[in-house]
DNA sequence: GTCTATACCTTGATAGAC
DNA sequence: GTCTATCAAGGTATAGAC
């Protein structure tokens, strides 16, 4: 079954991207992890960038699914909190693909990928609506530009603090999630 | 002059690390930027990792210098704010070397580099003292583990939000610094 | 569509003359 | 210590048989 094989490929790419990042991940590794020859990979995906883009699209779709399933009865602030919590948990599970934030061949490929851009836009719209509502009701600081809030939320998806705290060995995953949620929404200053 | 040449090398490495990261930076580029042959580089530094480590040590020393010069009359909270502000400014100037947070050959080299570890420890001690004082006086949330606060501060040095906001083109560098400082210390929630 | 084998290139690092 | 020239390894991608 073609779809099942491709899902297995993308799943492994996803994991490897989370583990080592785009540049350190090799196509040989992916092929070995899936258990097929490298040349077979290239029958499904035309390039390494294409592989990574597929993994990113898969993750974005999962994110969108989660957002769509968030309890509409929650306050806008709690919806945002739920979104960030989900992101942090995915990252702690080693399932959040890490891509270079700097310019690279991958960024060009992503910017040319309609699936990626569309899903990213949908997510941004949904989060943007929540942000606007939260600022209107005064639960999120209205002085912050909505775009800055959005970027700050996205950045939690690749926050190195999670890995640092995890390797310190002093906190459970649940504690780490709550700590980062707290610093994200409440800040370091005392309230 | 040997020292001057090595300073020129490390300066270029620093800039290239900030631009493209460790993996995307090539030794050929460094040699070209400095204006010497690649083989000559290897007379000064024994490996690419060694080059990057030297750049990191240089940046850590600059950070330590800055911390030592912070006005002792400031409150502990304002000292921490000054430290983060400095980090953000360096990053916006494209001078903050970006290293892979994931495991790699570079991490091993850094962990074997006494200069790096010593300076990092000194900085952490200085910041740690300020954090403790700030928590004691109640200006920083005392419920947060000091280590989590420290990591959160460090993480601002590679915060992708800066680059996102910069490329949005809607804010000056000064505004971006104040925005990120605000989200870091005050959080997204309204106060 | 899977495989083996390989082309082609880039990269980190070195040899050896000066 | 600088250069030119080169090596060895490992990477992406492809050819071509089945």
Automatic annotation (TrEMBL), chains A, B:
InterPro entries: DNA-bd_HTH_TetR-type_CS (IPR023772), Homeodomain-like_sf (IPR009057), HTH-type_TetR-like_transc_reg (IPR050109), HTH_TetR (IPR001647), Tet_transcr_reg_TetR-rel_C_sf (IPR036271). One of its GO terms (molecular function) is transcription cis-regulatory region binding. The keyword Repressor applies. Residues 3-63 form the HTH tetR-type domain. The keyword Nuclease does not apply. Keywords: DNA-binding, Repressor, Transcription, Transcription regulation. Residues 26-45 bind DNA. Pfam families: TetR_N. This is Transcriptional regulator, TetR family-like protein. It comes from Ramlibacter tataouinensis (strain ATCC BAA-407 / DSM 14655 / LMG 21543 / TTB310).
């Amino acid at each position: 079954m073609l779809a099942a094989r491709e899902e297995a490929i993308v799943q492994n790419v996803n994991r490897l991207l989370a583990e080592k990042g785009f540049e350190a991940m090799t196509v040989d590794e992916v092929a070995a992890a899936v258990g097929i020859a490298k040349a077979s990979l290239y029958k499904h995906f035309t390039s390494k960038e294409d592989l990574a883009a597929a993994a990113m699209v898969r993750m974005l779709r999962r994110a969108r699914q989660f957002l769509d399933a968030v309890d509409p009865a929650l306050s806008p602030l709690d919806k945002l909190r739920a979104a960030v919590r989900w992101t942090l948990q995915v990252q702690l599970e080693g399932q959040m693909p890490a891509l270079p934030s700097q310019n690279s061949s991958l960024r060009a490929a992503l910017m040319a990928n309609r699936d990626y851009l569309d899903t990213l836009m949908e997510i941004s719209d949904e989060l943007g609506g929540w942000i606007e509502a939260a600022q209107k009701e005064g639960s999120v600081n209205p002085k912050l530009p909505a775009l800055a809030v959005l970027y700050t939320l996205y950045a939690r998806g690749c926050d190195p603090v999670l890995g640092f705290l995890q390797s310190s060995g002093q906190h459970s995953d649940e504690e780490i999630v709550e700590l980062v949620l707290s610093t994200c929404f409440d800040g370091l200053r005392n309230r």
